[in-house]
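Deliverable D2.4 — example input (structure tokens):
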């Protein structure tokens, strides 16, 4: 996908009002999310020791940005997400079942293979994680949590539209979530690619959660890549909304119930990643020393785009773009931050 600005697109807010609105919606959403999921805000690292096993390798091929530290013998990696760090933090901070944390996560994904309306090398998201009991490791609990996140986003939209009436032209997001497994989605659209399936289904149902991402489907391919050492591939998924501005499905959150010692053991073998068993984090998890959790990331720029009616992610975040993206936006009168 290349950058494409819809014909006739014009921002509903000025540059300065956009900046003010982003700041406000972030505060509103954080407060609502924290209240609904019982989360407390904490500080998080920008980088971790490269030998700790705490960094995520996402789909398995992305290279983290790394650097040496002058007055240390350590090499550091800029985080790609905080899925593992959060779980360790919940143990270190003494969180009890039913309680959790959220934080701001900033990342650099140098190997992002798409620079377009929705993708940037700079990633900003709310990372959250919550301690659960073993009896919570089921689809019903996952679905209830998804509905709470959707409620937080929709509540934030309503407040923003009350403060900025021009945003009411966007209409309301659908609060009712349609749940579908990745396998059922493949069965429904066997001749489409995963992204095409998402667009077809989300266009009809507006707000969707796709369950079961990472493991191979009956076609022999997964719906999408997911690292084997943070989500349980049977108890995870993505939240997507239909974006009328761009006319496509927009993924705003990747989340799930995290691996247990048993599912980690199984998924490391399936993914051919048995070498990770020697890393400190993985050893602690396999030994049952870390709490059972649920967690995920929620894209700050994606939510800002959705609630403010923006056509390009560069309108709500500052990054570096290729020449084709810069020209497409200039030709359409869209200012990149």
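Example output (designed residues):
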């Amino acid at each position: 996908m290349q950058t494409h600005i819809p014909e006739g697109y014009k921002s509903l807010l000025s540059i300065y009002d956009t900046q003010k609105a982003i700041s406000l919606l972030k505060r509103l959403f954080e407060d609502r999310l924290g209240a609904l999921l019982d989360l407390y805000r904490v500080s998080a690292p920008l980088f971790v020791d490269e030998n700790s096993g705490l960094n995520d390798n996402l789909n398995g091929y992305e290279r983290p940005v790394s650097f040496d530290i002058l007055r240390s013998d350590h090499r550091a990696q800029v985080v790609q997400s905080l899925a593992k760090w959060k779980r360790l933090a919940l143990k270190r901070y003494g969180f009890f079942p039913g309680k959790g944390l959220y934080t701001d996560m900033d990342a650099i994904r140098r190997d992002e293979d798409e620079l377009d309306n929705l993708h940037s090398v700079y990633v900003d998201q709310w990372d959250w994680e919550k301690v659960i009991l073993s009896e919570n490791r089921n689809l019903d609990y996952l679905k209830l949590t998804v509905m709470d996140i959707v409620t937080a986003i929709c509540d934030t939209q309503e407040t923003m539209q009350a403060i900025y009436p021009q945003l009411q032209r966007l209409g309301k997001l659908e609060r009712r979530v349609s749940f579908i497994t990745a396998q059922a989605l493949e069965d429904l659209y066997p001749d489409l690619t995963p992204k095409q399936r998402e667009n077809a289904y989300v266009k009809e149902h507006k707000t969707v959660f796709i369950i079961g991402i990472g493991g191979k489907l009956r076609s022999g391919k997964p719906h999408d890549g997911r690292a084997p050492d943070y989500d349980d591939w049977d108890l995870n998924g993505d939240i997507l909304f239909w974006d009328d501005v761009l006319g496509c499905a927009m993924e705003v959150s990747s989340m799930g119930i995290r691996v247990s010692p048993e599912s980690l053991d199984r998924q490391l073998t399936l993914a051919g990643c048995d070498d990770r068993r020697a890393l400190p984090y993985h050893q602690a998890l396999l030994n049952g020393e870390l709490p059972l959790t649920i967690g995920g990331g929620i894209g700050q720029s994606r939510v800002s785009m959705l609630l403010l009616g923006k056509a390009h992610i560069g309108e709500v975040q500052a990054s570096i773009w290729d020449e084709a993206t810069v020209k497409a936006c200039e030709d359409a009168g869209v200012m990149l931050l």
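The mean pLDDT is 89.
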